[in-house]
Specification:
This is chorismate mutase. 52% of the residues lie in helices and 1% in strands. With 341 residues, the chain is an all-alpha fold.
């Protein structure tokens, strides 16, 4: 059990070498075989292909068969979840899944074998015959299922293996998408995977191996998908900021001034509030709640409360990794905001 004591900064706890190697290999090999690469030097996959996935034009089997679809076989998202007004509220809701997921994962040891290619004997899916890690295998299998039911046609979802997605088995759906076309080429999942395995897990989990590989991998898949969604929401946040100050942003975009964009989109006081809220949520979700009403328990001394994960540590992970990567997505999106228009 973690205490409420001040957490050691994640950056000062280097990951075991084996984990660093495993994730690096998975990222570099993944770029060649389907895993998303960092988009710093260009789109991770081709623009027309990604559009096909989003629009469902690669999904003829499904579009041809639905009676509930529109005249072109495409359904429309009737929810308002991608309207710009709902973006900040969604970020706050997503915190709950992320915090619960991190606490869930922290009950298991690091279990390094899950991240090492061949560490656990799983079927290989890399075309070049190199072995996959158990996490890569589970993530890709999960995307095969989600991909069939249009998860990755939604503009707020990003696959870790976008080049390996299957055809849809249900009709395509058209989503309201307030983003500029350049958004389609931005996918930083390879960086997110690297950060999760090498920085976040070592800050969260006990060293060692408890052999709960299946539970570990399931928690990891869910956490990676939640983190990916949260971080790529930066595209929507950036779009709302652009629309609020179009002249200022346009000037910086035309100058390709990444540092200026970062300054303009950063709200230090909002970040402080996020860290405080996340820390409070981690304190609430991470304590053992008994069947007694709080009033029957009397006043509990804060120092007596045992937490599953030190709440400050979760706040730090937000400050050090999750918010900076969300801002990186915002800058990447804004730098290309005027492309293809
Ligand atoms: O809420 C915003 O304005 C955001 O851009 C999101 C976010 C975050 O990741 O939580 C990122 C940058 C800001 O400095 C504050 C918060």
């Amino acid at each position: 059990m973690a205490s409420h004591a001040a957490a050691t900064p994640a950056a000062s706890r280097p990951a075991p070498v084996s984990l660093r190697l495993a994730a690096r290999r998975s990222c570099s090999r993944g770029t060649a075989t389907g895993a998303a690469g960092s988009s710093a030097s260009g789109p991770a996959f081709s623009f027309p292909e990604q559009r096909a996935r989003r629009s469902g034009t690669a999904c003829s089997a499904a579009t041809a068969s639905s009676s509930k679809a529109g005249s072109n076989g495409t359904q429309t998202d009737k929810s308002d979840r991608l309207s710009l007004d709902n973006i900040r509220a969604s970020l706050i809701r997503q915190e709950d899944s992320i915090i619960f997921g991190l606490i869930e994962r922290a009950q298991y040891s690091i279990n390094a074998a899950v991240y090492q290619p061949g560490g656990v004997d799983v079927p290989c899916f890399h075309p070049d015959g190199t072995r996959a890690s158990m996490l890569e295998f589970m993530l890709r299998e999960n995307e095969q299922t989600g991909g069939k039911i249009r998860r990755y046609t939604s503009p707020d979802e990003h696959a870790f293996y976008p080049d390996s997605l299957p055809l849809l088995v249900i009709p395509a759906m058209s989503y309201p998408n307030p983003l500029a076309p350049a958004a389609e080429g931005i996918n930083i999942n390879a960086r997110i995977m690297d950060m999760y395995v090498n920085d976040l897990l070592p800050a969260l989990c006990q060293e060692g191996d408890d052999f709960n590989y299946g539970s570990t991998g399931l928690a990891d898949v869910s956490n990676l998908q939640c983190l990916s969604k949260r971080i790529h929401y930066g595209k929507f946040v950036a779009e709302s900021k652009f629309q609020a100050k179009p002249e200022e942003f346009t000037e910086l975009i035309k100058a390709q001034d990444a540092a200026g964009l970062m300054d303009l989109l950063t709200y230090k006081e909002v970040e402080d509030r996020v860290v405080r809220r996340v820390t409070n949520k981690a304190a609430t979700y991470g304590q053992d709640i008994s069947e007694e009403l709080p009033s029957d328990l009397g006043l509990r001394n804060q120092k007596d409360i045992e937490y599953k994960v030190a709440p400050e540590r979760v706040g730090e992970l937000y400050r050090e990794w999750i918010m900076p990567m969300t801002k990186d997505v915002q800058v990447e999106y804004l730098l290309r905001r005027l492309d293809h228009l």
